[in-house]
Amino acid sequence: MWAIIFILSLLGAFALRLMEMIHMAYPPKRPSSHIIETAACSFVTSLMPSESWVVRDLTERDFGIDKIFERFENGFATGELMAIQVKGTDKPLEDKPEIPFSIDTKTLLYAEMFAIPFLLIRCSLADDGACYFVWLQEYIRVRLNFDNSSWRKQGSNTILIPASNRLGDTSAESRLIHISRFPKMKESWLKYYIDTCDLAYQLPNFIEEDTITLDFAIQYVLPALDSLKKANNMLGFISNHLVATKLSQAIELGKRICDKEFESELTESFFKFVCLCSDVRKSIDMLSLRFDVDHMRFLYEFEGVAEY
């Protein structure tokens, strides 16, 4: 019995020594997953036009962000940033309008915390470096919250990346610019909202035609004109031709009233100014639709429009 135990112990010691010799014979090997991720990150960088984007690498990539995209316009910084997570594969992606990808729920929750857009980029090294992106916060808002309301309780979720969001395509580049501008656009809309709401308190609710004098008109036009000019400054990030037209018409008419160009037609001009200001105030509802999740879901369901 003791002889058997002795022999087994010798065999065990020999096996341990053999394993040590094997490990000593070969240096550490880099995991293939690391090689794929590095190659995918490099390819993503190569697809971003250097004249429009600066791609910054992060040192703590495993925390969830691999890169930061910063947008430039005509060589000038815009202050527009996007957080990027790259997921590479050495296998071909499915040839579908929407490419499925299983993502950890903790990554989705992490993306929701960001004030800047957080993009996931799926890159296949087997498809000549085909890379597709999805704006995670908007995807959660318009798709995931509606399609699977309990997604936060799952360990992972399958998201569908639009095949139209292929890095390097002109249409996809325009979408990236729109996404990068979104935080500024939202902030501009809030400022626009405040300035146009002020119009409700700066204009009379009831006007008797025979009481309109130049002094009467100017006391209302001047503060309203100030609000209109402030709102007009926000239109650089709020693209809407109708709103811009109404604003410019109201500003121009207000200036002419204050310059006393309508002494003989003051009543008609003042009424027209009030109506134009009313149209500008109503534009708040039209512009706010872009930030209304139910409206964006409606566009997705019935018109196939999505901005993620």
Q: Topology of this structure?
A:
Elements: H1 2-25, H2 32-47, E1 53-57, E2 67-73, E3 76-89, E4 98-104, H3 105-112, E5 118-124, E6 130-135, H4 136-147, E7 156-162, H5 170-197, H6 199-202, H7 214-233, H8 241-258, H9 266-288, H10 293-303
Parallel strand pairs: 3-5
Antiparallel strand pairs: 1-2, 2-3, 4-7, 5-6
Helix pairs in contact: 4-10, 5-7, 5-9, 7-8, 7-9, 8-9
Describe the fold and architecture.
With 308 residues, the chain is α+β, with helices and mostly antiparallel strands. The chain has 2 domains: 32-168, Trna Endonuclease, Chain: A, domain 1; 182-291, Four Helix Bundle (Hemerythrin (Met), subunit A) (Up-down Bundle), CATH 1.20.120. It has 10 helices and 7 strands. The protein has helices spanning 2-25, 32-47, 105-112, 136-147, 170-197, 199-202, 214-233, 241-258, 266-288, 293-303, and strands spanning 53-57, 67-73, 76-89, 98-104, 118-124, 130-135, 156-162. It has a 5-stranded mixed sheet with strand order 1-2-3-5-6. A two-stranded antiparallel sheet has the order 4-7. Strand 5 (118-124) and strand 6 (130-135) form a beta hairpin. Helix 5 (170-197) packs antiparallel against helix 7 (214-233), helix 7 runs antiparallel to helix 8 (241-258) and helix 7 runs parallel beside helix 9 (266-288). The model has no long low-confidence stretch (mean pLDDT 83).
In whole angstroms, the N-to-C terminal distance is 72 Å
Major sheet details = 5 strands, mixed
Secondary structure category: alpha+beta
Based on Cα principal axes, name the global outline: elongated
How large is the radius of gyration?
A: 30 Å
Low-confidence stretches: none
Number of strands: 7
Taken as a percent bin, the fraction of beta residues is 15-25%
CATH C-level label of the largest domain = Alpha Beta
* Lateral strand order in the biggest sheet: 1-2-3-5-6
Share of helix, binned:
40-55%
* Mean pLDDT over all positions: 83
Count of domains = 2
What series of H and E elements makes up the topology? Answer: HHEEEEHEEHEHHHHHH
